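Dear all,

This email documents one entry for the complex benchmark we are building for the journal club exercise. For each entry we list the sequence lines for every component of the assembly. Then comes the predicted three-dimensional structure of the complex as a token string, followed by one or two observations. Please use this as the template for your own entries, and keep the labels exactly as they appear.
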Amino acid sequence: MHHAETIDIMQEPRHLERARTVGHQALFVGVAALGAGVAVALFGGKLDGFLKSYLVSYTYFLSLALGALFFVMIQHVTRAGWSVTVRRIAECITAALPIWLLLAIPLIAMAAKIYPWMTQTLLSPDMAALVEKKRQYLNFGFWAGRIVLYFLIWSWLAHFFYRKSIEQDSTGDPKLSHWMHQRAAIGLVLFAFSLAFAAYDLIKSLNPGWFSTMFGVYYFAGSVQGFFGLLIIVVAWVQSSGRLPRAITTEHYHDMGKFMFAFTVFWAYIAFSQYMLIWYANIPEETRWYLSRQTGAWAWFSVFLLFGKFILPFLFLISRWPKRMRELLIVGALWILLMQWCDQYYLIMPAENPESAGAGQLPLHLNDLLCFIGLGGIFIWAVTQRMASCSLVPERDPRLHEALAFENY
Amino acid sequence: MSSTTGTMTATSAHPKTHAKPVSMVLHGLLAEFDDDHKLVAACKKVRDAGYTDWDAHSPFPVHGIDRAMGISMTKLPIFIFFCGALGTATGVIMQWWMNAVDYPFLISGKPFWSLPANIPVIFELTILFSALSAVIGMFAFNGLPRHYNPLFRSERFKRATDDRFFISVLASDPRFNLNSTRSLLESAGAAAVERVDDTSESEAPPRLFIWAHAILLCLALIPIAMIYRARNAPIDYPRLHVIFDMDNQEKYAGKQAANPAFVDGRAMRLPVAGTVARGMLRQDPALTDGRVGDRWLTVFPANVTIDDALLKRGQNRYEIFCAPCHGFDGSGNGRVTDVARERGLGWVEPKNLHDEDVRLRPVGHLYNTVKNGIRTMPPYGDQISGESDRWAVVAYIKALQRSQRAAPGDVPTEKKDELNNRK
Amino acid sequence: MATIVHEFDNTFEDPQKRPPLVVGDHSFHTVTEAVCRINESPTAPALWWIIFVGGVALLANLGAMIAYLFFTGVGVWGLNNPVGWGFDITNFVFWVGIGHAGTLISAVLFLFRQKWRTGINRFAEAMTIFAVICALLFPGIHVGRVWLAFYLFPLPNQMGMWPQFRSPLLWDVFAVGTYFTVSLLFWYTGMVPDLATLRDRAKTKIAQIGYGIFALGWNGSARHWHRYERAYLILAALSTPLVLSVHSVVSFDFATSQLPGWHTTIFPPYFVAGAIFSGMAMVITLAVPARVIYNVKDIITLHHLDVMNKCILATGSMVGFAYITEFFVAWYSGNNYEWFTFKNRQMGPYWWSYWIMFTCNVIIPQIYWFKWARTNIPLMFVISLLVNVGMWFERFVIIVTSLHADFLPGAWDTYSPTWVEYLTLAGSFGLFFTFFALFLRFLPIIAIAEVKGVMPRKHAHGHGHGGDGHGHLEAAR
């Protein structure tokens, strides 16, 4: 209705205990799938293939959690009012970040199998000479240390904003909001550098000869786009479980849809700029990265990504009504989540050398699915355990009333 | 003029200086409100009373008035979407037609139709068309510009753009009744209600206005006519030089007059005696010119060693500079020749290097041809610079010639097996 | 008159309150009065005359420099081979960058529902338009033979040949041309209701007719407002990608090449951040004196300045992030030429320009982490000037240091601008300030209708959104 009636947040059902059991089931399925994946890899003797599949889903779920961390901080730094009712759910999603540090252990332990710069003998003589020049940066010890450092930064930021927010639930102290506002500004600076360098270290260095200054921004754009897809799904799940029925309205879905649309366009802008500049200048050491992705079946995959991650969502979300129709918006959000996974697949899977045998083939494997289910199960477990343990809305946030009365114009 | 009472008389006697009095007719009623909340409340009442030909006026957009008045969502966004799509299509078709169809030319190896490079202009035109349609569409749907409005006759209405809120109900509304409508507006909380009159006939615009427009229109056509003439009419006088010294430089070239600056009257100085121009030091004419005296060399000069490296180099130079016309195998079927044949352009076909006269030429003659050209073939001495490169090309040509009429004995033994196995 | 004379601190840090966007005891009428009296006053303030006369003098100088350039040729500039772009393109990119804040404030902040934009959007938009005019001047004149400038547009030349659409320089024409058109539309559309206000208040026949023609007969109809708001929202949604595209396309002029220091993929977003950064600084440069001259401190409040300074901090840090990324990747690329160019920027013959750029753009704005700096008016004025200097040098660094020493050491040369170039740069400011002074004198410098929409009074009656400004107004008194 036009005049939003005053909602008493204390009357809203805002605890979702069921999440805990859902999480346990997801964890069980996830661990089983990962185990099956390892077994397939060991019997098939293709451990490097398994690790690459693992890395795809690893960076995928990581991107969603980082998107959530970015969302939480940007809401604090801009003192946003509209988003208070959905902010706690984003805080819960960041719970996956410390777990992801643990899941980095197999990656670090077996990194030499997929990061060609770690094993000099795998490289062509030219490439080995080039990598040698970067040895101060590209060496195992520093690399592993950096990965741990990024996760410490993220986990600390995620923990800080979650803890202060929970503290406000009990004390209702408005000073905490101000405190988080200030910390978020510093947090965003740390976040910008750590995310960009993590993208270089985890993904870009798979092709040690290739470089692009845009790469960190590219990973960021996809992360936030995917995160809004996830946020819409989780909010819809919470509401379908009968929680927060009146606190979150069509207006909030509309706004989340707008942001998903905005970041769809932003991703396309970044992806186009990176592609066009490399295509236009046509410098061999840069174009070879795209050449691997335009050879054989990968060319079709690139076109699929262009349509799936930009053109279709753009046309779907540009109008007002799909953003305000929950069922349609959920379909769109699921599609965006799928495409963000495809984007990670596109970044990680193609062969480093476009001339090598099998460069034009999509290395689709059962392990892609098993790793997705496995890491997805663990991700859901991490998020749901936190969701079960707290109120799903920052119930004494000083700007909550704005979010409850929020209306789009 | 219909009779009016109370506050309304002031309005109909609006100070307009006309030569002859104009009769006035009722236009509608205007109600004034103190603030936006009273306006919204009143709008609901007018809407519920079933009026259609009425409007609210406020100095800023009032929140929630759309619903209070029953205004349905405008179709403007759909119009803008289609105009934007038209912009996209314009960008695609324009660039494709201009660069890939009407006048294709090659730039930095990019395809004539290169989509990544065409996206920026497509995008800009999409935005341009959408934005123009948004503004033009908005004003057109609003019936603006409409500089004359009977409501402007009301002195009170001037505050509609300052701090007052109004509802106007027009006499053309089927439910309009001077008394009942007035009492509805008053009961809805109006601070004041007044009637607004309009002239019964539309006034012609001032004559000056018409003339000014006609003259401006004519003036606007002059540049177009001038451009049309400039592009189509032949002229017999030299073109205009905007910057004189770009076309007419102050130099003595071609003037056939003595230069007073120097005693010998020359415009240019002679080089110092004994100067040798770059590449003109011919100490060994056999190497640099391919001849000794008047006789062409028949064997390669002594300091040119024919080996694998020289032939590789010769092949490399040949394929860059010679193959476009003479073809990779030397038979005269290069890409340029092909195109010239396809298009039927009249041009002298390049020599087939396997013709007998070419085969029998001394190597010195071939060298000279590479360096200085022959008949219509231009000299390549500047591009294939250095004696060794030119001799390498000659050596490669000799190798090509031999390859076309090779005897079995010419094939090296290790290659023979390969040939025998091929079948 | 309800205007306040002293600064009123409405930069609340208390999360329970939203700062009021109009302070002092204002009604709708006094807001109209506060803005319209600037245009209606028969005399202009002394400072206005200084800006106007100074602007016209510099503009005359610009005309002289351009005439000298046209009749003598581009040799009057210090350009050489290899530095074929110097002050001309530096000034072009500088002015286009300035022109980004207007649309950012009008469009992007509108989409983000940042209501504080209403106080400053009108003259930020005006600034945009004048800056884009200054920018458009330079590509126009740098070609030397200006009578062939028609070839910038999709018209065939005497051989029936069309322009080359695969060239980023032609994209520029479309991007900046579209940007100018759309900014003008946006500015004008926003101004129509205010022109109607001036029309209805006009006392003289000339003012009535002048404002009346451009007000298009606007009468505040709710049906009109309905379509107007929709169109305005869509224009904002169109301008947001547009504003991103314009400076991205400008960055393509450099980044599509193969020159070290130019060819880097982060250029598009980095140029956009830098553009917004410099534009915001220019808004501060103009807003600080304007609010004093015309005493509109209660509409362009300390809160507005505080928030803009935060934007400067954010965009300045983004620019710093891009500098560091570029520097790191130049090393990481393992490419000798790339790495040389970046070392040459810091330690080569133009080291001073690099360090001016880095200090002004990255280091100095960091002081805005502190609130006392964000709310100190003399300090912010100085910093805004320094940021403008820094951003001018950023373009100088990118253009000159990359060109003067490229792949072939035998072709290296340095560039020293001539007096004509210095005076042309100064003249472009004359063009800008002449237009800006005329705007201040004759057009509403604040979006009257929009400010009325966000006034605290309006929310006092319990309208849901926007917080309880009423409580604040009480506190403000």
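Observations: Chain B is about 45% helix and 10% strand. Confidence is low (pLDDT under 50) at residues 1-18 of chain B.
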